[in-house]
Amino acid sequence: MRGETRIGGQTNMKIQSAARSAPVFAFLLVCALASANALAQDNKGQPQLRTVHGTVVDKNDNPAPTSVVYLLNSKTEAVKTTFADDKGAYRFSGLDPNVDYEIHAERQNMASPARKISNFDSRRDIDMTLKLSREKGGS
């Protein structure tokens, strides 16, 4: 038989076939391991976004519904706004953890003091009560 080597009565074809498929198997194994490793990393290379939420209250600690809450991105100076709900609750999500923010609330002629949210604050979920304790334009 042409191209065959007999070893103990068995042909060498099975060995040659296995030798040809070994690189394909190795490639598939490497791809599978790389995919599993990528899934296991859980986005470690990407910063985890933050959320700031809380309640706006008046000077008597009662909820202040329909207050406007302002969030200033100190890096870009972009301002996001939201309205507090009927319980005075507000929420900003998807915030960059590498940026400082400043937050305050206003309702009618009252405002809360501006509060800083530092990029050094490592919390991903920040709960902050904003108290309407001064008149707008006052210190």
Question: What would the keywords be for this entry?
Answer:
alpha+beta, 139 residues, 2 domains, single chain, Immunoglobulin-like, six-stranded antiparallel beta sheet, elongated
Write a structural description.
- By secondary structure, the chain is of the alpha+beta class.
- The chain has 2 domains: 6-40; 50-135, Carboxypeptidase-like, regulatory domain (Immunoglobulin-like).
- The chain is built from 1 helix and 12 strands; from the N terminus they run ββαββββββββββ.
- The strands form 3 sheets. Strands 4, 5, 7, 8, 9 and 12 form a 6-stranded antiparallel beta sheet that branches.
- Strand 1 (6-7) and strand 2 form a beta hairpin.
- The longest helix has 28 residues, at 13-40.
- The radius of gyration is 31 Å and the shape is elongated.
- The termini are far apart.
Helix content: 10-25%
C-alpha-based Rg, rounded: 31 Å
Largest sheet geometry = 6 strands, antiparallel
Percent of residues in beta strands: 35-45%
Average the pLDDT over all residues and give the rounded result: 82
Number of helical segments?
1
Find the CATH superfamily of the largest domain.
Carboxypeptidase-like, regulatory domain
**CATH C-level of the largest domain:** Mainly Beta
Task: Give me the secondary-structure topology.
Blueprint: E1 6-7, E2 10-11, H1 13-40, E3 50-57, E4 68-73, E5 79-83, E6 89-95, E7 101-107, E8 110-111, E9 115-117, E10 125-127, E11 130-131, E12 134-135
Parallel strand pairs: 3-10, 3-11
Antiparallel strand pairs: 1-2, 3-6, 4-5, 4-7, 7-8, 7-9, 8-12
